């Protein structure tokens, strides 16, 4: 059963679970951004800001956020979590997208098991947002806080990719991170009250980039 915790403990745990050193391998994935750079769709800080802002609100991250919120509510029901995991895998628009979310979900669950008893967490083939939502729910972490941390991590991962792809430097990345803070907070608030009826997206350019990246050579990232 879910148990409440203090705000400080919840913050520390979210920082641990979503930090760059937590072994989920997020540094290896660009979620199609590498392809967007190769195609010339993202060339500088301004276009990078636009790409991340659009995909965050209208692309896969919104669906991930809804799945996380639903998993948080269903955290003590492994049958419901299994259904959400199946839905999460079905929503993946490309093989790389599926690999990204399932492999990171498995890695997250392996590491997060240190905080839980045997059998509490879902199986390893659970997509990352469902895995995080279930773990946060079981730990008694506030859903909106978990969503905000998750979405902010998605943004920071994209910015780290952009730095490695020489689209922007650290100062430019920090500026974009600051500018996107209100969008992250608003999206977390909306997703916390969302259900699977609210799933959907229209970031077709990001979806196509994710598909096309499967044949990109040479490349730095797995997606």
TrEMBL record:
This is Urease accessory protein UreF. UreD, UreF and UreG form a complex that acts as a GTP-hydrolysis-dependent molecular chaperone, activating the urease apoprotein by helping to assemble the nickel containing metallocenter of UreC. The UreE protein probably delivers the nickel. It comes from the Bacteria. InterPro entries: UreF (IPR002639), UreF_sf (IPR038277). Belongs to the UreF family. The gene is ureF. The keyword Cytoplasm applies. It comes from Oceaniradius stylonematis. PANTHER family: UREASE ACCESSORY PROTEIN F. Required for maturation of urease via the functional incorporation of the urease nickel metallocenter. It is found in: Cytoplasm. Signal peptide: none annotated. One of its GO terms (cellular component) is cytoplasm. Its main location: cytoplasm. Keywords: Chaperone, Cytoplasm, Nickel insertion. One of its GO terms (molecular function) is nickel cation binding.
């Amino acid at each position: 059963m879910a148990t409440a915790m203090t705000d400080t403990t919840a913050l520390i745990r979210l920082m641990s679970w979503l930090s760059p050193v937590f072994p989920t391998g997020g540094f290896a994935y660009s979620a199609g951004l590498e392809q967007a750079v190769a195609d010339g769709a993202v060339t500088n800080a301004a276009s990078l800001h636009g790409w991340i802002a659009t995909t965050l609100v209208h692309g896969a991250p919104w669906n991930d956020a809804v799945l996380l919120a639903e998993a948080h509510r269903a955290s003590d029901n492994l049958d419901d979590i299994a259904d959400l995991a199946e839905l999460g895998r079905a929503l993946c628009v490309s093989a790389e997208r599926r690999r990204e979310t399932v492999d990171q979900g498995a890695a997250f669950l392996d590491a997060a098991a240190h905080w839980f008893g045997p059998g509490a967490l879902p199986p390893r083939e659970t997509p990352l947002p469902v895995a995080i939502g279930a773990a946060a729910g079981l730990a008694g972490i506030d859903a909106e806080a978990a969503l905000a941390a998750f979405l902010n991590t998605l943004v920071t991962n994209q910015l780290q990719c952009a730095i490695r792809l020489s689209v922007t430097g650290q100062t430019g990345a920090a500026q974009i991170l600051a500018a996107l803070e209100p969008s992250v907070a608003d999206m977390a608030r909306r997703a916390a009250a969302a259900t699977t009826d609210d799933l959907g997206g229209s970031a077709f350019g990001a979806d196509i980039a994710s598909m096309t990246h499967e044949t990109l050579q040479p490349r730095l990232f797995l997606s």
